[in-house]
Amino acid sequence: MINKIQGVVLSLVLLLSGCTIVDSSSIVIGNTRQQTNIDDIRLYRTAPTSYEEIAMISASAGHDFKSDGALVNEAMEQLKKEAAKVGANAVLLTEIRERSGTVTMYRNISSNADSNNFGVATSGDRYTRVKGIAIFVKK
Questions:
Q1: List of E strands, 2-117
Q2: How buried is residue 26: exposed, middle or buried, by Cβ count under 10 Å (0-12/13-18/19+)?
Q3: Mean pLDDT calculated for residue range 43-65
Q4: Is the dihedral of CA 81, 86, 91, 92 positive or negative?
Q5: For residues 24 and 16, which has the higher predicted lDDT (pLDDT)?
Q6: CA 90 to chain centre
């Protein structure tokens, strides 16, 4: 049988190790191709000399307790998955947005409204959103 302390510890471990929330989407603007391998997708910050645009793509990753770097990596993986789905071999990055913040809330924890007995709750709010153009680079 689990006692109260073990229950609290277990709950905390489950909360902190929770899944990253990821999402992605694409809007086709060119000719799609056969799906490609995610490991073959290259990332560009400036446009290569010769390419075809296939789709506008976006992805996001969020988690209250993961590092910003981990969220960027997960968002980029999702972006590459979207590019692979439409047959791209590269992504031209257009936007990277990060939010790393902590929200602290104070509330009266007494049933007496006139009481000055306040509690503090802190919650992280981290996410990364990335956007790009799925492209096919001609070799």
A1: 21-28, 42-44, 51-62, 90-108
A2: buried
A3: 91
A4: negative
A5: 24
A6: 19
User: Which residues neighbour 47 within 8 Å (Cβ) at sequence distance 6 or greater?
Assistant: 92
- Distances, alpha carbon 55 to alpha carbons 6, 26, 104, in Å: 50, 6, 40
Amino acid at 68: D
Helix (H/G/I), strand (E/B), else coil: 26: strand
Residue 58 reports pLDDT greater than 90: yes
In the chain, the N- to C-terminal Cα span, in Å, equals: 64
Q: What angle do CA 113, 115, 119 make, to 5 degrees?
A: 95
Of 86 and 121, the one with more pLDDT: 86
Q: Is 86 helix (H, G, I), strand (E, B) or coil?
A: coil
Q: What is the pLDDT of residues 73-90, one digit of tens each?
A: 888 999 999 999 999 999
The two structure tokens encoding residue 93: 């990055």
